[in-house]
Design goal:
GO terms for molecular function: ABC-type oligopeptide transporter activity; ATP binding; ATP hydrolysis activity. It is found in: Cell membrane. By secondary structure, the protein is an alpha/beta fold. The chain contains 20 helices and ten strands. The structure holds adenosine-5'-triphosphate.
């Protein structure tokens, strides 16, 4: 019952993919019917040939007709095959475009909780399976029953007894084929699932390729991939075996019908209930049925296979989009350049937030005015989470975050993000070249002053010395440049957006202390007219901040200048690893004392 509901649902989904192609679909169906119809006329012409032969009449007319019918059939077959392929590819294109739009429109948490490989296999692999299913189902699947029905009508006009035999045999083979088709469906779904697993394993290993190599785990990863590939292979072979069984069952029905019709028909012809030419025509129709019946078997198999693909594609199509904005209760000021005094300001007001029902932030209240505010705290306290909430990758559970006095949830998400600049922890680069990576996501990329941005982050002397300058390729995933250079490029990109609020998540952690200080000084200069909220574990950055907020236990434990917190807060001292390191003369004295005491 559930299976049946699944099939009906899947058919409806498949039908929905043809939304703007219904006219093309109807033409295709018509073409298929005409092409099948031409073949349907052949046995009748053969009967005319036999009758004329008996009567000693000329055979030229019927033979010419047979040639015309065959030629027409060939042309129509070529045309319908080509158009079907085109139609199928259009479906794949439509579905892929829909999926990509869905994925990119989904929330950060929705996307991050699934393996990347799973998305890839659904968008590339499952949509390809879908192509055969849609064309098979909607064109062949619709034309074959109509063709069979037409043949049955003609066969009924020739002999009802023989027809009853064919229908009974056909019915029996349908029951047997259904059993095999269920096995095709189950095995195909399993094969596609394991294929998704293989993509995930490979994707994971490729992303962390250096770690895999350095850990010497190539063999381990290979085994995992082999297991997934092997399981997919075994399931696909099982599906193939069941498919072959479906084909044989369908053909067996026709073959048995042919033999029984031949025997019973011969008896009826002998008794005079049937002419010889009728029997030959009827037998030709039985042979003719092999085509549409075989097609039905193929459509059944491909539908069983496609059912799993439809489900997997559908799951992605139903990914929830990012939650909407609340209706504004105050005048929208999202596109304004500043709050009070024209200065941008950010405020976290009793913010509560947790993952999977586990509270993480428990009433964070913090004013982040113009200038540099640094967020420090033990690992896992929720510093990155605070930045995510400002970007509205997720919304607060309780409390509010205000930008220029307006609750973020009342600001259009796109407008909000246009006012923010964000450098995430691993600072990925998107763009083939240095210039493209810096211009990425900048509202006016052509007018952007890439050189100035590169100067600000201290990269211009390096880039200008490269043979291809800003057109130098950065390599996929930015592998052709160092981690520190990548981070500087990411900061340059964020600055080029000219954001009101700049969010930096350990964005300079891979730089040496001197370069980090220089870069952060440049950022601080820029912070004169914007809010900069930076997560860091480094004293170099904290020392430059207008204020430091220490996050601990889900709350703000202390706010102040770096020096104040150093002297007043033990946790802060521990976190920034500021050693109570004695000066050189003191160290000498200490060593002297230890030597003396050892004596
Ligand atoms: N998408 C998520 N789903 C479930 N838990 C999450 C998710 N993101 C973060 N967490 C959990 O929330 C906690 C805080 O994570 P967060 O990255 O905000 O900490 P952090 O203070 O920035 O840490 P670090 O200094 O190590 O980068 C961690 O325990 C983490 O496991």
């Amino acid at each position: 019952m559930n299976d049946q509901r699944g099939r009906t649902g899947a058919t409806r989904v498949l039908w929905s993919y043809t939304h703007d192609m219904r006219a093309a679909l109807m033409w295709l169906l018509l073409l298929e019917l005409v092409s099948n119809g031409a073949a349907l006329a052949q046995p009748l012409v053969v009967r005319a040939v036999v009758d004329r032969l008996g009567a000693g009449e000329s055979l030229v007319g019927p033979v010419v007709l047979l040639v015309v019918i065959a030629a027409t059939g060939l042309v129509l077959t070529w045309l319908s095959t080509y158009l079907m392929e085109r139609f199928g590819q259009r479906i794949v294109l439509t579905v892929r475009q829909r999926l990509v739009r869905r994925i990119l429109g989904a929330s950060v948490s929705t996307v991050e909780e699934r393996p990347v490989g799973d998305f890839l296999s659904r968008v590339s692999g499952d949509t390809t399976v879908l192509r055969h299913t849609v064309t098979g189902m909607l064109v062949h699947g619709a034309a074959a029953p109509l063709t069979i029905a037409a043949a049955v009508v003609v066969m009924a006009s020739i002999d009802l007894v023989l027809l009853a035999i064919v229908v009974a045999m056909f019915g029996l083979s349908m029951v047997a084929a259904k059993w095999a088709l269920d096995r095709v469906g189950r095995a195909s779904e399993e094969a596609q699932g394991h294929l998704g697993g293989l993509t995930s394993v490979l994707q994971r290993a490729l992303v962390a390729f250096r770690t895999v190599k350095a850990s010497g785990t190539e063999e381990w990863e290979r085994r995992l991939a082999d297991e997934a590939a092997g399981s997919s292979y075994r399931a696909a072979v099982r599906a193939g075996r069941a498919e072959a069984t479906v084909d044989v069952i369908a053909v067996t029905g026709i073959e048995l019908s042919f033999i029984v019709v031949l025997v019973v028909g011969a008896a009826r012809a002998t008794s005079g209930a049937l002419t010889l030419s009728d029997l030959i025509a009827f037998l030709l129709y039985v042979v003719y049925l092999r085509g549409p019946v075989g097609t039905l078997a193929m459509v059944g198999s491909s539908f069983a296979e496609g059912l799993a693909a439809v489900r997997r594609v559908r799951e992605l199509e139903l990914l929830p989009a990012e939650a909407g904005d609340r209706p504004a209760t105050t005048a929208p000021r999202a596109e304004q350049n500043g709050g009070r005094n024209g200065e941008p300001s950010l405020r976290l007001d009793d913010v509560w937030f947790g993952y999977q029902g586990q509270p993480l932030l428990r009433g964070v209240t913090l004013d982040v005015p113009r200038g540099l505010t640094v967020l420090v705290g033990p690992s896992g306290t929720g510093k990155t989470t605070v930045l995510s909430l400002v970007e509205r990758f997720a919304d607060v559970d309780r409390g509010r975050i205000l930008l220029d006095g307006v609750d973020l949830r009342e600001i259009d998400r796109g407008a909000l993000r246009r006012r923010l600049g964000y450098v995430q922890q691993d600072a990925p680069l998107l763009g083939d070249t240095i210039g493209a990576a810096v211009r990425y996501g900048v509202p006016d990329p052509d007018g952007a002053d890439v050189v100035e941005a590169l100067r600000t982050v201290g990269l211009w002397s390096w880039v200008s010395g490269l043979p291809s300058g800003v057109d130098t390729p950065v390599g996929e995933r930015g592998v052709a440049i160092s981690g520190g250079q990548r981070q500087r490029l990411a900061v340059a990109r964020a600055l080029l957006r000219d954001p009101a609020v700049l969010l930096l998540d350990e964005a300079t952690s891979q730089l040496d202390a001197r370069s980090e200080r220089v870069l952060m000084r440049a950022v601080v200069e820029q912070a004169a007219h914007r809010v900069v909220l930076a997560v860091t574990h480094r004293g170099v950055v904290a020392g430059l901040a207008d204020q430091v907020a220490l996050l601990d236990g889900g709350r703000v434990r202390a706010v102040g200048r770096h020096e104040e917190l150093l002297s007043s807060d033990t946790l802060y001292r521990e976190l920034l690893a500021v050693p109570e390191f004695p000066s050189a003369p003191e160290r000498g004295k200490r060593e002297e004392r230890s030597v003396i005491s050892a004596d």
